[in-house]
Amino acid sequence: MIIHSFTNDYSEGCHPSILQALTESNLIQQSGYGDDAYTLSAIRSIRNKIGDDNAEVHLISGGTLTNLLVLASILKPFESVIAAQTGHISTHETGAIEATGHKIEEVFTSDGKLTPELIKPVLNKFPEYHTVKPRVVYISNSTEIGTIYNKKELTDLSEFCKENDLILFMDGARLPSALTAASNDLTLADVAHLTDVFYIGGTKSGALLGEAVVITNDTLKKDFKYHQKQRGAMMAKGRAIGIQFDQLLKDDLIFKLAAHANTLATKIRNTVEELGYSFLTESDSNQIFPILPNKVIDKLILKYGFYIWEPVDADNSAIRMVTSWATPEDKVNLFINDLKEISKLW
Amino acid sequence: MIIHSFTNDYSEGCHPSILQALTESNLIQQSGYGDDAYTLSAIRSIRNKIGDDNAEVHLISGGTLTNLLVLASILKPFESVIAAQTGHISTHETGAIEATGHKIEEVFTSDGKLTPELIKPVLNKFPEYHTVKPRVVYISNSTEIGTIYNKKELTDLSEFCKENDLILFMDGARLPSALTAASNDLTLADVAHLTDVFYIGGTKSGALLGEAVVITNDTLKKDFKYHQKQRGAMMAKGRAIGIQFDQLLKDDLIFKLAAHANTLATKIRNTVEELGYSFLTESDSNQIFPILPNKVIDKLILKYGFYIWEPVDADNSAIRMVTSWATPEDKVNLFINDLKEISKLW
Amino acid sequence: MIIHSFTNDYSEGCHPSILQALTESNLIQQSGYGDDAYTLSAIRSIRNKIGDDNAEVHLISGGTLTNLLVLASILKPFESVIAAQTGHISTHETGAIEATGHKIEEVFTSDGKLTPELIKPVLNKFPEYHTVKPRVVYISNSTEIGTIYNKKELTDLSEFCKENDLILFMDGARLPSALTAASNDLTLADVAHLTDVFYIGGTKSGALLGEAVVITNDTLKKDFKYHQKQRGAMMAKGRAIGIQFDQLLKDDLIFKLAAHANTLATKIRNTVEELGYSFLTESDSNQIFPILPNKVIDKLILKYGFYIWEPVDADNSAIRMVTSWATPEDKVNLFINDLKEISKLW
Amino acid sequence: MIIHSFTNDYSEGCHPSILQALTESNLIQQSGYGDDAYTLSAIRSIRNKIGDDNAEVHLISGGTLTNLLVLASILKPFESVIAAQTGHISTHETGAIEATGHKIEEVFTSDGKLTPELIKPVLNKFPEYHTVKPRVVYISNSTEIGTIYNKKELTDLSEFCKENDLILFMDGARLPSALTAASNDLTLADVAHLTDVFYIGGTKSGALLGEAVVITNDTLKKDFKYHQKQRGAMMAKGRAIGIQFDQLLKDDLIFKLAAHANTLATKIRNTVEELGYSFLTESDSNQIFPILPNKVIDKLILKYGFYIWEPVDADNSAIRMVTSWATPEDKVNLFINDLKEISKLW
């Protein structure tokens, strides 16, 4: 019997205020395809929050669809995107980007983050015409392994991209978690200012579905809706996502929910540390990767859901634990107690 | 001040039972990516309804995404899809099918429906290798102009496709309306039996979003989920569509809602006929195309929403009126009265 | 025993001066990928001939590869190309253009030529974002059915395209034949001036292989070589095409060869007319489409190669006869005599 | 003044016997698109040589076009190709494979060759549906850095591929050089038997252009010509390549020419060794990568053409030298003498 699953941050439905808003607005007739009042209100909220009245905002149903749509809208046929080898587009989107015709140039990085130093060698191409031309740098914040960019790192990357005529695109499927992590010093406005295009993940932050793409670079705005419709990313009832973001953005609800998830992940992390265990990656976001003895894991997994990420040595493995807006603190407490008890056995 | 919009069938939210089910299930943890209990229940309902336990069922967020996904999963690079010139993929999907690399061979047909006779000339290709190879026949039921296929027509088409090694794919964005039209003699099981793959539209039939793809041809089933993930069509919270179809399929709710829409469209149609007006197309589904004097249209449009479809002559135009599960009968009555009053003026 | 084949204009090798030039230059070391001296000389010849020192010229191995390369280099994902239903890209390239992701919007035209009037309806799209956006107009000169554009027609088309922000692209696989037809009033410089990009066909005009793409519109020049390499259209030994165009452009050899082909086609055409037969299309280029009694065709085909194009009525069919730079006049004379003799029989 | 260029193996034209054959056959009328007598004769020669009467053979104009065509014809949208990080498709084809929609999974290998051990980790994918599915293993023989596969290595790879349902595709742009290298123990028949599809490079082995694709796996044969036409890889005058392979295959001319190139490369290699220099890679094919002092390189490059491949340390760099069927022995002797003289200076 599983007490609680920490397998991912999309096991539950959505924040109750969204269900209430869906119910209240249900029979009000609205325009389709993203021209409804709720979507427009959500767009205004984002523009206010980042202080950019000209930002283009589009609401898309999911992360892979968003990634392929944004990249296909930017890249010419011979242009490539640079990404970490751990990047979601590199590993877990079934070749979605290549299916739009574009090469991902994968860069090895141990912490899931890109730096100018890591990107430079990729730009050094030869001979002309015979290689792809790097055009976009794709980063995730938080990354797929829980780490986050600080302001200095993102600023360096942003400047490097500008100097090298590269577009900086941030996959923000877990951006609310990143921006509410204890060590974070970035604001949403910083992100908007330092990237050319980014998105705020709704699916993993309290919505049923939906990612809000924000385009701040003027050259990328034109005709985006054509791309959106072509890739099947323009929903007839755009309101279904619009209402959700409209709610999540009220009173910073989306960030409060992310902070809740982070707090609980940190609680687990602290216990893991106290017990003398280490981590695969340094994370204060909602994904942590404790390295535990296999014997401990074997016991825990009878009562809690989580991924066994990878073996570290003969006796220990890294696991992935994820908390969310919906994770109950009492379940975290149960887990912590069980972890302590089991650890005492050896 | 607009009294009511008959512009389309996606102006409202969803049937209240869906909101209730979303609320009740909200905090129950479920697997992601379509492996949740609600999706599995919805799949069972569809299999029961069509009497095919081996049918593959996948829930997709919207119609264009479904069309491009299904066709990209079937067609080899040099194969084409045959469609009516009025087909949704031919006209209103921003080249989504071509963007997956495939030619649509468009056939002119006045009633939006394909027949073996219309398809035959397309198969007559020459010389070998220099032309695309037709592989799929795409039809819509109801069509984009409100007409529906009867059992004889669909059977003829089905047999012709089998004889010519063609896959028959039905876009069922408005299938519930077609199957509940007064003149319909097809069952859902017939549709499943006579096509190789089809879908049941949720978005236009009472859901917030979602189309249920049903694959009955064994050769098309393998690896569909790879295609689904690659095209961005696999939602993390698959439950968000699963719950909706699970509700809509209970007690044939989806068909009851469609019948409601058809009844109201028929009520308007009868009035139009009584007043001596004609129609652009013959339709007893939820989309009708009355031809009205421009003078009448100019008055009506001040109070009701609808599309002015196309001019018919100097003084008359066809309009498109669409009813839905959410259309209130009293608003239809108001419209009918207004139409009668205005028509008296001349 | 077939005396001579008039089936197409690519049945023989190449003009002997090309073989001589290949032999003389054979062991001279040259740069690869189109940077050899012969290619550069050919480019200079074309630039001189059209009076445009800034024209970009690229040599490509064949027509389909050229068409897909040029269009893929111009079109954004959601943009389309408008072409005649008889256009080579529409019918005989196995979906090559769609395979690059783009829709061809086919326009019906009885003489294979496009006009502003034929294009206008295609531009009238609605609603925004839901349809492809026409961007290129593709024409062939001579067309696939032997007709040619005159200066007035091409000028009208050119102006219309400029007014509507459309790129005009001429497939010139048989351009030398068009420009040397008796009724032609266009120069190569006119073609360069009135289009944005066009090509001069080598394969059908005396070369073993090769088409010379000429880009005069500045906005289309950048990065073309990236597209060229990506599509497999940049030959390591670019000299192999360079030498051929270098020879064909000396003393207008390519046009003299085309004039020879036209003269012989006209000779056949005149006989057909004298004998009281008609034609499927009006052509004074090197492709003619006589309509002959099936009884005559049955006799002729025992001695001569040609396509039976299509039945015209129960007793008569159109055939396609093609002459080339290599067609011997004595074989044409034999054909003419045989046609006269056979026609006398009935 | 450059005495001779060793920059690549495509600086000259073609073997004189090809020019003679082109001349002799020039006015003989032949069918187009690869159905000519010369192509058919070349196909028979290859089938005889590999002892497989059912092998499908197609002649393509160049290497990149061949690679993208073969891979696009095999791979389903979600399938990937595994290649060495140094593979031509990985580095020097401007994203040609990705432009057909497929991911290349690049494997690091120091000698340019793949082994089962290197491939195994790529096959270990998780979770299902979320990653591409590896389907083809692409290898080059000789590799891009001059190394070759021996029979044991190719057999191991072949067996591994069969066990894992992977297609083995050999890029043979320099296959004749590989098969005539001193250390080679593979025959052309071995290659045909151990791979599913491979090609024999003509461009770098004495032809003006052309690669001969040989498909031995029955499941890959069907409809190849449709793919060929669609990618612009079916030449109207197929004879232009057919004649060349027909000549090159007579009396094993292509292998004699390759042996000539290898002998001269070995002569240079021996001198480099005698002088105490080392190499970047171990090669007895026609590409060698000596590591020379920069001071020596600076002198040599005034008289000979070659690539400076990469710096090895502050004072030394690897260069790439390539010999070909056309390399004159006396130029090699001059180079050797100069290398000896220059090396004495320090």
What are the defining features of this structure?
Aspartate Aminotransferase, domain 1, 346 residues, 7-stranded mixed beta sheet, globular, homotetramer, Aspartate Aminotransferase, domain 2, alpha/beta, 40% helix, 5-stranded antiparallel beta sheet, 2 domains
Explained architecture:
The structure is a homotetramer of 346-residue chains. Helix content of chain A is 40%, strand content 18%. Chain A folds into two domains: 4-10 and 254-344, Aspartate Aminotransferase, domain 1 (Alpha-Beta Complex), CATH 3.90.1150; 16-252, Aspartate Aminotransferase, domain 2 (3-Layer(aba) Sandwich). The mean pLDDT of chain A is 97. Chain A contains 14 helices and 14 strands. The two termini of chain A are 24 Å apart. In chain A, helix 1 packs across helix 11, helix 2 packs parallel to helix 11 (239-249) and helix 12 runs parallel beside helix 14 (329-344). Chains A and B meet through strand 1, helix 1, helix 3 and helix 10 of A and strand 1, helix 1, helix 3 and helix 10 of B.
Q: What topology emerges from the helices and strands here?
A:
4 copies of one chain form a homotetramer.
Chain A: E1 4-5, H1 16-25, H2 37-50, E2 56-60, H3 63-74, E3 79-84, H4 88-91, H5 96-99, E4 104-107, H6 116-123, E5 133-140, H7 151-163, E6 167-171, H8 175-179, H9 188-194, E7 197-201, E8 211-215, H10 224-230, H11 239-249, H12 253-274, E9 278-279, E10 287-288, E11 290-293, H13 294-300, E12 304-305, E13 307-311, E14 316-322, H14 329-344
Parallel strand pairs in A: 1-12, 3-4, 3-5, 5-6, 6-7
Antiparallel strand pairs in A: 2-8, 7-8, 9-11, 10-14, 11-14, 13-14
Helix pairs in contact in A: 1-11, 2-11, 12-14
